[in-house]
Structure formats: structure tokens, C-alpha cells
Amino acid sequence: MSTQSSVVTSATELRAYAPTADLTVSPPPSRIERARPRTGTSPDNLRTEPGPVRFIIITLAVTFLSVFVVLPLVVVFASAFSKGIGAYLAALGEPEALAAIKLTLLVAAISVTLNLVFGVIAAWAIAKFDFTGKTFLITLIDLPFSVSPVISGLVFVLLFGAQGFFGTWLQAHDIHILFAVPGIALATIFVTFPFVARALIPLMQEQGTQEEEAAISLGASGLQTFFRVTLPNIKWGLLYGVLLCNARAMGEFGAVSVVSGHIRGETNTMPLLVEILYNEYQFVASFAIASLLAMLALITLVVKTVLERRLDEGQEPRDH
Amino acid sequence: MTIEVKNIVKKFGSFAALDNVDLKVDQGELLALLGPSGSGKTTLLRIIAGLDWPDAGEVLIDDEDALARGASERHVGFVFQHYALFRHMTVFENVAFGLRVQPRAIRKDEATIRARVKELLDLVQLDWLSDRYPSQLSGGQRQRIALARALAIEPRILLLDEPFGALDAKVRKELRQWLRSLHSEIHVTSIFVTHDQEEALEVANRVVVMDKGRIEQIGTPGEVYDHPATAFVHGFIGESIVLPVDVSGGSVRLGGRPLNIAANGAASGASKLFVRRHDMHIGPAGSGSLEGAVRHVRSFGPIQRAEVALSDGEGKTVIEIDAPRDRELQAGEIVSLQPRRYRIFAAQD
């Protein structure tokens, strides 16, 4: 659950908190921060605390996680199947549900693809070149993480709404951005932009430019160098970023809620539909969709663990 | 293939990495660019390769303007200090890379590429490693693979940036000899950068000594060692004793005392006297123009190294001298010193 959206969303929206259960989508830790402890002393060598203290600390951690993470997850699935598997499948087969799933997949596909391209370009620029304003660009990349998603959505309302900056022009040309797929996609792109770039920047900085220089001196063109040397070197980091980006894109609530307009069967994504169904006391239907998001979260978690392992294997110790 | 560099200037901000550098490399030479770090030697190499661009000047490879072409079109083999092998490719694919990225029109067929890679791996004597990944190789093996990869494109010239810098001393010595014999075998015009004078003197046909973005001297290893052109070269190559002296009207004085040596045409004024450690003759007290007290003696191999405090008033100037072991020196002994061969350069600062 993204902390920002839960803090900012109003009390009524908070009721939708339990069902959405998008557990995975917090900003990714920097690769360097994450990798460092593994190279340090192994936990076995750190038995400095007496047994009882260790027991209490571990019990506290496990209890906390059980109450705040595992329990809600169990509740999601229990509620979804409370009226049997038939009701569960029927709820997912509803046209409204199918439309929401389709829209969510479409928006995720658009935003992940674009963020993949932009993220690689931004990371490339930052890691491989020196230019004025580089620090500013790095700060700018992180902006979506520091702005509340609701505000991010509101920005697009201010830009493209009827009274907005481009509103009159858009209306004159009959182009629909707000309360339509483009608006939802834009808001999602904005919110999920940092994931790919942040996963790649430390990786590319660490790898430097020597392999690219070697490729060019061997006669490779720019494109050959990118596809044969740069891309294979960053592929695990790239997948890691894409994975987190996708999880957030599918689970995003705040920003999308502001720009969607909640048109049934048209502009409701899965998280939005969960809230609507819940407010209408259709608990099985609501939790059924929520269970799909929860499964996405679990799959993401597993894949993420696998990718992190591949990434660490990819770190070749350099001998100087 | 010849390389000609004319009036190259390269600045990083206000720092002049290369300050009007001229250099001509002949066909088949093995040339060393020698200098301390920050002397501009690697920058010069990267400019010739097309990995950096000069602010002014010309680079001609075979009388052809190289600056008109990018690095990928120069046909220059470049070997990096840290190998820069493609970590996700096997040794075989690393070496084959340059052949696989050739434009379709001139690209060889798979069988020819395989044969060529095999031939190169044989040349560097590592054909048994062709299915390994770079992370599974030792430093010396990686460097040889990097060299095979650079040679795969049949480069017009070969550039090596501190090729042995990251290796330990023993491997380094082996690779030095290996590089020299490889060069006499394939005879491609080569430049290598090093900060290790021994490496430069041992491997190269000619040595270019650089300092602060300028070329101090170009010559054979014998010339730069025996006839250093500047104070910097004398101090940088070989171990030297440096003493501050005054030259006036053909006589040389150290701390007011005349030394019994000729000025050899050195200009009058504050100067520096350079003497190789083994060119300072040690004799019984009173026989030479300098005198001092032996403080320590360490004997190893054919020489004994004596630390001598000069009796120049304060006894603060301590020099190290390599003497033959025909007469054992004792700590505390007063000896006289006489430079046999020496050079005098005007003091620059």
C-alpha cells in the first residue's frame, strides 16, 4: 500500500484500503543500498545479543508482519471466496469487472512501455554523460515519488480540464483526455516514471562506459553497441524496474481516481472498481477483484526476489 | 601504418591535458608513452583512437585525416587498462565481436569468423578458454583476450592503455616479454601508455616521455636513460641524486664549496646537479670534491646501498649511493664522493 495515497485519501476512500491490497508498490530501494549489506558480515557472525533478546526481537518482527501484512491478505482471499468459488467466478465475469481488467491492462501496457523507453534514455543520459543540470534532472526524476498521487492527478485536471490550460483548445478539437483512457494513462505514466530510471542509474553508473568504448573501437555502430553491449548488461535491472513499474501502474489509485471520472464500464480501473463495489456493499465482487490485485502483488514479490538474485550475480567483482 | 599528431591541444576546463603535442610514429614501431599520472599520455592515446576529441590540432593515420572519422571507422585496435571485456559474452564471442558487427556487405561468413577467432586465440595461447566468461579468467588472461579481441578487426594500429597496470608484478613481467615477441611477430604499429619506466624501457623501440601535457623527450630507451634531455626526464627515469648547485663562469658550487667538475656549458645561475646513484664514486676521505658520513649500509646482490649525509654545513642533505662491493663500507665512516657522470640543468623553481 503506497503510504502517500493512504495518507492523503479521504476517510471514505480509506474504507477501500483493505480490499485493494497493493502491497508491493513502494519506491524501490536504491540498488546500492540494497546490495551493500549482503557483502558485509553474515548474520551468523553477529551473535552479540543474548538468546532471549534475539527471541523477543524476532517474535516482534514476525508478529508485526503477520498482523499488518499477512492478515489483511488472508482477509482479502477469505472474503472473496466467502460465498463459494461460483460466486467468485461470476463476480469476475461481470461485464463491468471485465472492462476494468481490460482497462487496467491497457493502461499498464501503455505506461510501462513508455516509461521503459523514457527510463532507459534518462538513465543513459545521467549515467554516461556529464552535463549542466544533471543534478536537477536526477531530482526531477524523483519528483513523482515525493508528490502525493492525488496532486499528480489534479495537475492533469488543471492542464486538460474544461477550465484548464489546454481545455478550450481540446474542446474545440473534440479531443478527450480527461475522463478517458489518455488521461488515465498520463496520470499513471507520471506516477510510475521513476521506477525504471531509478533501477538503472546506479547500475549503469557502476558499469561505466568502457565496454561501450570497446564496442565502438571495434567498429560497432551506436545501435549495435546499445543492443549488443549496453542492453544485455542492464537487462536484469531493467526487468526489475519494469516489474515494479507495472505493479504500481496496475495498483495506482489516487492519481487515477482524480482523472478517471468513474464512468462505469468505461473509465474504471480495477482499484477504482474495488472501491465502488465495496461502497455498494457487493463485498464478494469487490474482494474478488481485490484478490486479483493481491495475486499480482504476490507474483511481483516472487519475481522481484528472483531478479534481485540475478542482479547480484551479475555484479562481477572488479579487480584493480 | 604511420601515425602523425600535430599541435594537439586538449583542455578539461582550465586544465591543459595536452599542450601543443607533436608526435610521429613510424611503420611497425612499438612506442611507449611514458609519464606520471596527469601527464596527458592516456588522453593522447584516446584522441588517436577517437574516444576523445582535441580542442585543436591534427591527427593523421597513414597521412589521412583521422579526426574526420569517428572511433568506429578508424580501424584502430584499443586495449583498455581494465580490459573492458563484454561480461555477458564468452571469450569466443568477445573476440568475434568486431567481426560480427561489420557491415553486412563485408561481413565474413560464420565459418570464416570461427576460423579467425580460433587463430587469434591460438596466437594469445588461450584457445582452451573459448567457452569461459570473462569473470572466470585471471587478470593476465583477460588482458590477452582483450588483445586478441582488438586484433580481430585487423587494426591499422594498435593502442594499449596501461596494458599491464592492473596486474601483479610477476604476471606483468611475463606479459611484457610476451607483448614484445608478439609485436615482432605481427608487426603492427603500436603505442602503449605506461607510468612504469622499466616497462617502457624494456618493451618499446622508442620512448616518449611526457609531463604536464608536453613531450619532454623522444628517443630510444638508451637515449632517454643515458642522455636525458631535461631535468624532468633525468629525475623520472632511473634513480638520480639531485643536488642544488650554483654555476658561475664554468665552475660549479654546492653550498659555496666548489665541486671539482666541469660545468659542461651549463648556463650561469641556480642549477640542479643530477647524478645516477651508481655514477657517484666513493673514495677515502679527502680524495673527492664532496665529503660525507655514511649513515647506513645495506648490501644486496652485486651492490651495497649507502646512505650518506653530506657535510654541507648542516648535514641535512642525505643521498643514497649504489657502490660496488669491492670495498665494504661501514656506518660512521667519512668518505669522499666524486660524480663520474653527471648532468647539470637550470633550476626551474
Task: Report on this structure.
The complex is a heterodimer of chains A (320) and B (349). Chain A has 320 residues and is mainly α. Chain A has helices at 3-8, 11-14, 17-20, 31-39, 51-80, 84-93, 95-128, 134-146, 149-160, 167-172, 181-192, 194-207, 210-217, 222-251, 254-260, 270-279, 283-314. The longest helix of chain A has 34 residues, at 95-128. Mean pLDDT of chain A is 82; it is low at 1-40 and 316-320. The mean pLDDT of chain B is 89. In chain B, strands 6-7-8-3-9-10 form a 6-stranded mixed β-sheet, sandwiched between helices. In chain B, strands 13-12-11-14-20 form a 5-stranded antiparallel β-sheet. A 5-stranded antiparallel β-sheet of chain B has the order 15-19-16-17-18, with no helix packed on it. Chain B is α+β, with helices and mostly antiparallel strands and 349 residues long. Chains A and B meet through helix 13 and helix 14 of A and strand 6 and helix 4 of B.
